[in-house]
């Protein structure tokens, strides 16, 4: 893993199944009956992933640099 890729995390206990992430970044997130999940854990950098994390109403999505673990989104 490197810092040219991002690691995605969805906190299923926090997720309220709004579907915002799947609507904003359908190539990266899917909504199921028990909440949203990332289709893969590590992705190439894609602005749609940032948009999805920042549009989540309960901030259940976190995006980290895959190599360093630095938080990319959401940012306060």
From TrEMBL:
Pfam families, alphabetized: Fer4_13
Claim: Secreted is one of the keywords in the record: no
Keyword Iron-sulfur: yes
Recorded GO MF terms: 3 iron, 4 sulfur cluster binding; electron transfer activity; iron ion binding
Annotated PANTHER family: FERREDOXIN
Job of this protein: Ferredoxins are iron-sulfur proteins that transfer electrons in a wide variety of metabolic reactions.
Organism in which the protein naturally occurs: Actinocrispum wychmicini
Keywords assigned: 3Fe-4S, Electron transport, Iron, Iron-sulfur, Metal-binding, Transport
InterPro entries per record: 3Fe4S_ferredoxin (IPR001080), Fe-S_cluster_ET (IPR051269)
This protein's name: Ferredoxin
Cofactor names: [3Fe-4S] cluster
């Amino acid at each position: 893993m490197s810092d040219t890729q991002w690691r995605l995390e969805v906190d299923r206990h926090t997720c309220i199944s709004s579907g915002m992430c799947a609507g904003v970044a359908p190539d990266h997130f899917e909504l199921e009956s028990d909440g949203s999940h990332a289709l893969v854990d590590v992705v190439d950098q894609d602005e749609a992933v940032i948009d999805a994390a920042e549009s989540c109403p309960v901030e259940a999505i976190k995006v980290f640099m895959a190599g360093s673990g630095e938080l990319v989104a959401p940012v306060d």
